[in-house]
């Protein structure tokens, strides 16, 4: 008992004497307390669908987030809270891993600033609340850097093996993890001191192991005509090759990054990026080995994606891996005054965010929202009672179909019902011929909800697959007594898996 009491007292003393840890715990407790009030996001439902349909990989991403959600729901049960809790736990492990990594580069004072910088960001809150491949990616990215640091700077050879495993698991989370191997090679090429490691078998063993760990993703792609790789690359390559300048994309990316990082941290990123690039290009000065290591895993991702923003819409989460070493670098530069401003702005953002979660003050004109999905499922079940022997489908890539699948006992289909590509819904092995001659309820979200009227028309594709289509009264979802979401509903009769007509 005395040992236990002494341990608890030491932990209390550590927290009391370390304001940084107190701030981190404060932010994390705040996030944890918000979890029960978070509704289901479409991304949560879609990657939960991954976990319920286990596969070596998936159409739009590798499967790590799906595996994690499957494990947590097997242990803690099927619930929205379980999914959010999984995200929270994995992101908390990322924070802890970041602290360990940053301790290799920073003094105690700068380390404390860096961990507060990380914990205060909005991107950590998003990862804690929303299931995306970035949740495990950030964890395995950070663990990879810890292992590579140990292997390179402490010359612990077994960490080359562990680093290879971690890099492979990062790729099994999201394809952008390939930038880990690129960063490693770039560091070795530009480092005068460690360039000789390019001749070391341990480096190449590490890279081979990382490739071996990614084998399930490659094998799934091989089995499916490399569908996932093609999806992630071909359309984007074509868009970039068009080279159309778009100020909207550029300033939109700046706005997103300032929101995710909080403005102070974003501006620090820009400042030190400019400083190091200027030194390299104008003065041909290479930073010290440890700083170069951090830059090698920051520049390709942050500067690389940012350079695309004038000609391509870069998603807000693509730069997230660069934040890990970027925040460590920021910890070297930021002073106490700027840190206080960062924390104050962050607190304001988080308070506003919590008010939106708790009271839904501002309607969101998008399907990317956490409200209304459970109510939609209940209303859809009622419609099925008045229209028996019907299946349900939607046409918005995955959002409505995935959310209804989460809340309903029976299978809900996507736009592959009417011959359109439907992301991983195309790879679930559904035999659509079993639906032959059945009637269906087609649910169509009105993202820009303005009134309660019927839509009045519908996609002509429905006529190609159904004998008759009749619009029903729209489903109106009320949140806090206000009409907040609207879904058009169509009763479709006599489904034919093969198009009735291709001329309509």
From TrEMBL:
TM regions (residue ranges): 20-41, 81-99, 111-129, 159-190, 202-220, 250-272, 292-312, 318-334, 341-362
Compartments it resides in: Cell membrane
Gene Ontology molecular function: any one: pentosyltransferase activity
GO CC terms, sorted: plasma membrane
Major subcellular site: membrane
GO biological process: lipopolysaccharide biosynthetic process
Topology in membrane: Multi-pass membrane protein
PANTHER family per record: MANNOSYLTRANSFERASE YKCB-RELATED, MEMBRANE PROTEIN
Name by which UniProt lists this protein: Glycosyltransferase RgtA/B/C/D-like domain-containing protein
Source organism: Polaribacter butkevichii
Species lineage: Bacteria, Pseudomonadati, Bacteroidota, Flavobacteriia, Flavobacteriales
């Amino acid at each position: 008992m005395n040992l236990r009491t002494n341990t608890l007292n030491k932990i209390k003393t550590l927290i009391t004497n370390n304001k940084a840890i107190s701030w981190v715990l404060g932010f994390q407790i705040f996030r944890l307390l918000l979890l029960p009030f978070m509704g289901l996001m479409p991304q949560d439902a879609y990657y939960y669908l991954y976990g319920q349909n286990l596969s070596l990989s998936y159409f739009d991403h590798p499967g790590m987030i799906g595996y994690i959600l499957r494990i947590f729901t097997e242990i803690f049960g099927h619930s929205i809270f379980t999914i959010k809790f999984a995200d929270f736990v994995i992101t908390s492990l990322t924070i802890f891993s970041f602290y360990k990594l940053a301790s290799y580069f920073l003094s105690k004072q700068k380390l404390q600033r860096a961990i507060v910088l990380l914990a205060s960001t909005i991107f950590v809150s998003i990862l804690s609340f929303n299931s995306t491949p970035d949740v495990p990616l950030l964890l395995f990215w950070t663990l990879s850097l810890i292992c590579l640091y140990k292997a390179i700077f402490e010359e612990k050879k077994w960490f080359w093996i562990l680093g290879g495993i971690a890099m492979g698991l990062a790729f099994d989370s999201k394809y952008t993890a390939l930038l880990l191997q690129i960063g490693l090679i770039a560091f070795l090429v530009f480092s005068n001191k460690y360039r000789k490691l390019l001749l070391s078998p341990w480096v190449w063993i590490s890279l081979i192991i990382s490739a071996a760990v990614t084998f399930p993703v490659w094998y799934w792609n091989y089995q499916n005509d490399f569908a996932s790789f093609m999806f992630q690359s071909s359309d984007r390559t074509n868009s970039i090759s068009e080279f159309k300048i778009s100020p909207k994309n550029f300033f939109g990316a700046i706005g997103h990054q300032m929101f995710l990082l909080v403005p102070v941290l974003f501006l620090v990123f820009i400042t030190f990026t400019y400083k190091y690039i200027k030194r390299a290009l104008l003065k041909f000065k290479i930073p010290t080995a440890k700083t170069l290591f951090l830059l090698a895993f920051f520049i390709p991702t942050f500067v690389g994606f940012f350079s695309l923003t004038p000609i391509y819409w870069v998603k807000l989460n693509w730069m997230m891996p660069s934040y890990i070493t970027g925040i460590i670098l920021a910890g070297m530069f930021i002073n106490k005054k700027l840190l206080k401003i960062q924390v104050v702005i962050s607190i304001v953002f988080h308070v506003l965010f919590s008010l939106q979660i708790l009271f839904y003050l501002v309607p969101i004109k998008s399907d990317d929202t956490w409200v209304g999905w459970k109510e939609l499922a209940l209303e859809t079940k009622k419609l099925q009672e008045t229209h028996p022997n019907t299946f349900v489908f939607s046409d918005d890539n995955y959002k409505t179909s995935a959310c209804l699948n989460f809340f309903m006992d029976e299978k809900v289909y996507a736009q592959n019902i009417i011959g359109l590509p439907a992301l991983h819904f195309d790879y679930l092995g559904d035999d659509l011929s079993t639906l032959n001659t059945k009637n269906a309820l087609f649910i169509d979200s009105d993202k820009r909800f303005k009134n309660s009227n019927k839509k009045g028309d519908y996609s002509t594709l429905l006529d190609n697959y159904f004998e008759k289509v009749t619009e029903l009264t729209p489903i109106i979802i009320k949140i806090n007594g206000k009409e907040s979401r609207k879904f058009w509903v169509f009763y479709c009769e006599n489904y034919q898996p093969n198009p009735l007509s291709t001329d309509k």
